[in-house]
Amino acid sequence: MRRCLPIGEVRSRCVRRKTGGTAKQAVRTPGGTAKQAVRTPGGTAKQAYEGLQTSAWPWAAKACTVDETRPSGHLATSAVLLGRATQSQRTVVSAHAARSAQLIALFFALAILLTPNVAMAQSRIGTCVRVNVPSDVDADGFRQLVRSEVNRHNTHQAVEEGCTSHLVVEMFRVGKDRYVTGRMNAEVPYRTQVEGEGARSLELALEETLTVVLHNDPVRLRGPGGEACLVGWLGNLRRRGLTIWGVQLHEMGAYANGKVYFVPGVGLMLAREAGPWQVGLGTALGVDLQGQRSSVRLASQLKVEAQLAYYFSETASTSWYAMGSFGLLHQRFEGPIEGTQGTFRDEQSASGAALGLRTGIELLRETNMRMHIFVEGAAPLYSATNEDIGLVSGWTPTMGGGVGVVF
């Protein structure tokens, strides 16, 4: 016989009916679990349920009681669930806070390492500038404009002597149209048409030309020779590397319980590249926006990782690339608990180190806004098994893909 009573009367009934210790006392015993509370000698599932109801949910307006003589598996299940909530609430919150703090600390530490040093201005590539213009154009003014544009790039510095690279910029007319051509050393020149007659049109054309020409400077791409491979690459990365950042749209997935669960996500990256190599830091967060379902779902997935990429063509405008990564992975699953017919739900989280692999193609590499398409996967170095919850178990590798823009 089921009827609802005020919470105060339920408390008093719990006190009157305890025969050998209440579930409330058992749950509060160090090392005790809700299942132990239900199985405490001298106690019943009803007592466990009522004890946990008053201890775990004191703010409830009403509580329901059931005749003691009528066995109820529902009461036992409720006791287990409420006891688990009481015990694990503080543990889960503190664990999530600790993991979040670790991920944030790692992100900012690597970001500081990748941010270009102010002292790098002293080690940029010294570039001598020469201009050729029609007789009706102010040569000195145009040369000053070119030098100013060169100095805007953190890889080159316009100088008068001690040149490492030589830049030649030419402006000429063909009929009514104006063109700007730039050539670095003995490389193939790059030509841009000036759209319009004003000074601003000339400035935009010059900006586009020098962005392409300076990016493909062989001195910047290859660096000085005569050093050991690793030492030379690290020195070149520090002195002449280019700092880039980007955003990505992900479709992130995880394999668990024989199924693949996908969530949409966004990502950020900060990197420094020199030649065909790129080293950086990336982070991505995916969240399920559809809410609760009748089965287990991947509620969210977060990763923070150090990345090392290799581009198979360092000068082409389109190049395939491969990337390896190592970092931290956090996964959170949510769903109904087995045996409760969907009445009760729980969450299960797993975190740890993971190894990742990505491959993709990058487009428009000669411009200051690149695009790339990729597929990726990661192998967690941990098991997601949690016997107390049991939503997922075993190894939960990730896979996915996406598109991104790099600046």
Describe, in plain words, how this protein is organized in 3D.
The protein has 407 residues and is α+β, with helices and mostly antiparallel strands. The chain folds into three domains: 2-86, no CATH class; 120-222, Rossmann fold, CATH 3.40.50; 241-406, Porin. Helix content is 30%, strand content 39%. The protein has helices at 7-17, 23-28, 34-38, 45-56, 73-114, 139-151, 199-215, 218-222, 229-240, and strands spanning 2-6, 62-66, 125-132, 156-159, 165-174, 177-184, 190-194, 242-256, 259-274, 277-287, 297-311, 319-336, 345-363, 370-380, 398-406. The strands form three sheets. The chain has an eight-stranded antiparallel barrel. Strands 4-3-5-6-7 form a five-stranded mixed β-sheet. A two-stranded antiparallel sheet has the order 1-2. Helix 4 (45-56) packs across helix 5 and helix 6 packs across helix 7 (199-215). The longest helix is centred in the N-terminal third of the chain and has 42 residues, at 73-114. It starts with a strand and ends with a strand.
